[in-house]
Amino acid sequence: MVKKRLYLELENCIGCRSCLAACTQCGGHEQRNRNYVYDVNPLKNRQTMPLMCLHCVNPACARSCPAQAIQIHETGAVLSALVEKCIGCQNCTIACPYGIPKFDTEQNLMYKCDLCIDRTKDGIPPMCASVCPSNTLQWLTDEEIEAKQKQFNLDNGKWVTSMPYLEGETNVRVNLPGILQGVTKLF
Amino acid sequence: MESTIQSAKKRDNTVNNAFASHFAKSMFLTVVGLAILVFIGTRMFTHIDLNLYGYMVGTITFLGGFFYRFISWGERPPTKIIIKKGLKLLFRKSTAKTAVSHLAIYDFIKKRGFYRWMQHILIGWGCVLACLVTFPLVFSWMYFNMDGNGYYTVVLMGVDLVRIKADGIIAWFSYNALNISAIMVITGVCMALYRRMKNMQARAEQKFMYDFLPLYMLLFISVTGLLLTVQNVFLHGWMQPQMSLIHQFSVIVTLIYLPFGKLAHIPFRPMSVLARNYREHYGEQHMKECKVCGDKFVSVEQSNDVIQVLGTNNMEFNMEDGFNLAELCLPCRRKYRIARFSGFATHQVKVKEANQNARG
Ligand code: SF4
Ligand code: SF4
C-alpha cells in the first residue's frame, strides 16, 4: 500500500463546509465534526480556509497529556483521546499550537481529528478529502505532492509544504500556491 | 556532541535511580502495611486461611506490576504536575462530590451513552463487591466463627463485630455476595461483548489483546466462581478442589495482567478527580486572559504548566508578535493560524468565530 498524505491547498476553499458535514459521518466520530472553516477577512470578502489537525510529527497535544490518552498511530496519525484514559484535564487543548482539540465538558472527554483512522489505515482517504469539491483537501502520495511542486514552479523559491511556515514538522502538507505566486485570485 | 550524549546519559541515570528507589520504597511500604494488617486481622496469625494462599501471591505480584507502571508513568512531566498539585488539593470541599460522580456513579459515562454506562455499573460494582468480600477473607481481615448454636460471629480486624443467625438474611447475603457479583459481571461483560460484535464501529477499532482479552478474563473468573457454588449446592462438592484451583488461577492471571492492558484504567482513573481539583482550584484563583481578545479561557497556573511541559520537550511556541501560543484562547489561536497562512491578520478582526459545528 502506497503511503498517502492529506494535502491542503488552502486558497481553493469555497466555504461550502462539506468537510465539516462529512467529518460528522465518519465512524467513531459520533456525529461531531473535528475540523474548522474560517473566513479570512469576514468583513471584506468571502475567502475561506479550512483548518484541521496537521498531525504533527512531534505532537504537542500528546506530549502534554498526563494520561497518555493521545496515541500516535503507526501511520503517523495522532489519534483522538482514548475514552478510558482521558482524565479531562484539557492540557492538550492548551498545548496544541493551532487550537485543534475540542473538549466535551459533560462527557469529560477530549475529541479531535484522528484522520479517520479506520479509513486511512487501509488507504481510503479521510472523509473531508473524499468530499471536498474544490480540491482544497486532497489525499496524495509523496510523488504526487512533488509533481504539484513542479506544477507550481515558483521562481521566487516559495513553495510551501508545511515547514518552515508551521510550528513544527507535520504529516499533513499545506500549500498556498496562488498566494505565494502572487496570483490575485483572492483578496 | 559528546557532552550532550553524556549529559543525556546522566539524566537517564538519575531518572532510573529515582525510579528504582521509588519502586522499592512503595513496594516495601505496601507489603509491610499488608503484613501488619494481616497480623492484626488474624489475631497474630492464628486465623490464616491457607486455602487462599494463591491470592496472596497474586496480590503481591499485582502490586509489583502496578507500582512499576504507575511510577514510570508518574515520571512524565505532565503527569507529575497533575499528581503533585492534585494531591495537595485533595482536601478541597468538592473532592467528595467529584469522586462520587467520577468513581462511583460514572456520570460522565452516562453522558457518553446509557448502554455503556450500564455495562460500567455492572462490571465495575460487580468487581468492587467481589473484591470487598474476597480480599478481607484472603488476608483474614474478616472471618466467620461458628458458635455452635446456629449463630456466626463476624470477626473484622480481630474484633468480634456482630453475631448473625446462620440462616438469617445477613448471612444469606454474605454467602451469596460473590454469586451476586458474578452475575453482575457476567451480565456486564455479555453486554460489552454484544456491543463489540454488533456495533460496526466498535468492530473497526477493536484489538483482541486490548479489548477482548480483559472481557474474557472477567468472564472466566465469574463463571468459574459461579461453578464453585453450583458444585457445592447441586453436586455435593464434586470436583470442587480442582475448580477452586482453576478459579484461583484465573484471578491471579487477571491480577497480573491488570496494570498493563485495558483494565489499567481502573487503578489510574482516580487521577480524573485530581485533574478536576487542579482545574477548579486554579481556575478560581486567577484566570488567563487571551492576549488577543481578552477572554478568560484557562487558569494562569495551567497555562504556565503547559508551557513548561512543552519546554521540557523542546517545544516553544513564542511568536514574533510577543506572545506564546498557549496564551491565546482557542478561537483566537485558530484565527492566528489562518492569519499566518494568508498573511491577513484574521485574529485582529473583531468578529466572533463563525459556527464551527456542522450540526448547528
Ligand atoms: S495539530 Fe494540534 S491536535 Fe493535531 S497533532 Fe498537532 S498538536 Fe496535536
Ligand atoms: S484532556 Fe484528556 S486527552 Fe487532553 S491532555 Fe487531558 S487527559 Fe489527555
From TrEMBL, chain A:
<feature type="domain" description="4Fe-4S ferredoxin-type">
    <location>
        <begin position="4"/>
        <end position="34"/>
    </location>
</feature>
<dbReference type="InterPro" id="IPR017896">
    <property type="entry name" value="4Fe4S_Fe-S-bd"/>
</dbReference>
<keyword id="KW-0249">Electron transport</keyword>
<protein>
    <submittedName>
        <fullName>Electron transfer flavoprotein</fullName>
    </submittedName>
</protein>
<dbReference type="Pfam" id="PF13247">
    <property type="entry name" value="Fer4_11"/>
</dbReference>
<keyword id="KW-0479">Metal-binding</keyword>
<keyword id="KW-0408">Iron</keyword>
<dbReference type="GO" id="GO:0051539">
    <property type="term" value="F:4 iron, 4 sulfur cluster binding"/>
</dbReference>
<dbReference type="InterPro" id="IPR050954">
    <property type="entry name" value="ET_IronSulfur_Cluster-Binding"/>
</dbReference>
<keyword id="KW-0004">4Fe-4S</keyword>
<keyword id="KW-0411">Iron-sulfur</keyword>
<dbReference type="GO" id="GO:0046872">
    <property type="term" value="F:metal ion binding"/>
</dbReference>
<feature type="domain" description="4Fe-4S ferredoxin-type">
    <location>
        <begin position="44"/>
        <end position="75"/>
    </location>
</feature>
<keyword id="KW-0677">Repeat</keyword>
<dbReference type="InterPro" id="IPR017900">
    <property type="entry name" value="4Fe4S_Fe_S_CS"/>
</dbReference>
<keyword id="KW-0813">Transport</keyword>
<feature type="domain" description="4Fe-4S ferredoxin-type">
    <location>
        <begin position="77"/>
        <end position="106"/>
    </location>
</feature>
UniProtKB/TrEMBL annotation, chain B:
<keyword id="KW-0472">Membrane</keyword>
<feature type="transmembrane region" description="Helical">
    <location>
        <begin position="169"/>
        <end position="194"/>
    </location>
</feature>
<feature type="transmembrane region" description="Helical">
    <location>
        <begin position="215"/>
        <end position="239"/>
    </location>
</feature>
<dbReference type="InterPro" id="IPR036197">
    <property type="entry name" value="NarG-like_sf"/>
</dbReference>
<keyword id="KW-0812">Transmembrane</keyword>
<keyword id="KW-1133">Transmembrane helix</keyword>
<feature type="transmembrane region" description="Helical">
    <location>
        <begin position="121"/>
        <end position="144"/>
    </location>
</feature>
<feature type="transmembrane region" description="Helical">
    <location>
        <begin position="52"/>
        <end position="71"/>
    </location>
</feature>
<protein>
    <recommendedName>
        <fullName>Respiratory nitrate reductase subunit gamma</fullName>
    </recommendedName>
</protein>
<feature type="transmembrane region" description="Helical">
    <location>
        <begin position="245"/>
        <end position="264"/>
    </location>
</feature>
<feature type="transmembrane region" description="Helical">
    <location>
        <begin position="27"/>
        <end position="46"/>
    </location>
</feature>
